[in-house]
Amino acid sequence: RGFRYSAKAIEQNLQLTSPAIDPSTAGTKLLLSGTVGKVDPDFPYVLAVTHFGNLEATYRVPIKDGQFREDLHLRFGAGSYAVVLYTQVANTQLTELVRFTVTTSSAKDERDLLPSASIESDNAQIMALASELAGGKSAMEAGKAVFEWTARNVRYDRDKAASWRVDPDEGAERTLRTRTGVCRDYAALAVALLRAAGVKSHIVTGRAGSGYDVAGHAWVEFYNGDRWVEMDPTFASGVVSGTGFVPRYDARYFDPAPDFLKTTHTREGIQY
Questions:
Q1: Is 236 helix (H, G, I), strand (E, B) or coil?
Q2: For 16-52, how does the pLDDT look when each residue is reduced to its tens digit (9 = 90+)?
Q3: What's the predicted TM-score (pTM) here?
Q4: How open is the CA angle 195-86-201, to the nearest 5 degrees?
């Protein structure tokens, strides 16, 4: 029990104010708050990762005026969680700040419904669009509406893909605002819209492509009440040619036949 601060946390003068002296127990949420004396202007966030057995979820906590405060959802249900806070350096490299353990007996398993770092399903604009697209519809109808809207309205960012850039605020909210992104941005927005509509969903991670042109990829899976349905709004949005992105909606990537999807997609994991 207790807190384990790293040398990086001491360097940044990070101090937690919540949880307090004994972080051992929590309810359905964990209030995380504290202060940071030295903030990287390129990454004004704390990344909080909750580990539950072999499952994990990430939350991006903004730092404003040297302070941070955020409720972390204990989304996997009752039990013990290892909580690790990180800062990001060198674009994608994470450096640990502090870790501790909490236990909850009251949390429910809502892993596929609650917001997380890049899946801001509680954002007002995302909730409004979700209501417009999916209000009063079945889960299958909602999934199709979200799939088509995302594929038709987000433009693939070829420069971001080529540079392997990770924007510190990337995710569903940014993608909705800019209408551009790469596969993980398409997937985050689609999942956020589905969760905002009350449809269980998550990001599927893996690899996609053919021949020698295979790379890391992200797509979407949602629950229609009877089964999990896959969809890939990125592949459905168009094609990347030698001159840039060409919009070309392709409905085949909504609930595709397994044999069809396997020709280009290899599933490796799930991101909550």
A1: helix
A2: 999 976 666 778 899 999 999 988 888 899 999 999 9
A3: 0.92
A4: 15
